[in-house]
Amino acid sequence: MTDKPTLGFETLQIHAGANPDPATGARQVPIYQTTAYVFRDADHAAKLFNLQEVGYIYSRLTNPTVAALQERIATLEGGAGAVCCSSGHAAQLMALFPLMGPGKNIVASSRLYGGTITQFSQTIKRFGWSATFVDIDDAAAVKAAINDDTRAIFCETIANPGGHIADLDGLAKIADAAGIPLIVDNTTATPYLCNPIAHGATLVVHSTTKYLTGNGTVTGGCVVDSGKFDWSQNDKFPSLSKPEPAYHGLVFADALGPMAFTFHSIAIGLRDLGMTMNPQGAHYTLMGIETLSLRMERHVENAMKIAAWLENDPRVDYVTYAGLDSSPYKKLVPQICPKGAGALFTIAVKGGYDACVKLVDSLEIFSHVANLGDTRSLVIHPASTTHRQLAEAQQVAAGAGPNIVRLSIGIETAADLIADLDQALAKATA
User: What pTM, to 2 d.p., does this model score?
Assistant: First the structure.
């Protein structure tokens, strides 16, 4: 089908990227289980390798099933193009790869998923890159952290684990003034709750493992390019604005315009980094996205009920859900996430570390897993798991201190989830 701007989200989440299979007429996107594709002739092959013609060469680069998923996510996010890869962490590296070089840095939110903080504070150092972590609520601190070697600002729409909402419009203005892209991890919001590109984001990344797939079956990641950033406005991004030796001096920004970043990520990123999404994973994710709006509505509805109940429970010190009137981020919900504040938040349990561990061990419906965004309700104690590698001060800064439990609210019956939390809190704080 031809996607039209007038089509609603619910229509696009089913139909975008899902034209009937030209070979068989299959209505559902087939799993193209192949590594390679036959060229029409030698000239056809040469044109594909020279980026003179778009097509399929090898499934490390492109695959029809994965391509359908890329089109669907790009459509829902309002982007010019998208590239899928093997995981959310891979997507973060894919987003940074064309932008960075030895000695270059990013300015990143201090409230990020623990694995992302580790990736940015430790792993990227091996490439000669670095990250400066700041409180992104403090615009002055963000501006002060940017220097001549800064190549991007990175944040999460709804922060993991605390559920804090970022002022994307404000951050985009800072990024624009500095001539650098704003990269937004939209995993916990999904394009149903927030469209970061509409708020000025240049690139949007996803762990498709989470809400997009929605059932904890496959890992995956995606980078969506807005197509709106001028990579040639300064000399900061030579990979995109200068001749590329591997393609006989092709300048991606000049030759490919709004699709420059997307094609670079395929032709060089996937070619050389090899962080490819498999077609089965793409198929599962395509099917998951078909029900995204329905699931997110129920996720948000349940989260609001449960957060309100927990806030009034004397065994809980506080709840960080942005949808609550008590949250300092409540004012950003209509602006950034008008359909709801997501379904991820934390609670501070009276009794500290030991009580948190007992709570996790006592829950029966909630699953204790290192994941979020499942139809099932999930729980984890970040200080002993996802944020374990961080110092306590870093844990606290990330909203994952020793007394904190993270809840990912599923789509079960809300009363059942409340009853489960009630009995577990009774045991944990006895």
Answer: 0.94
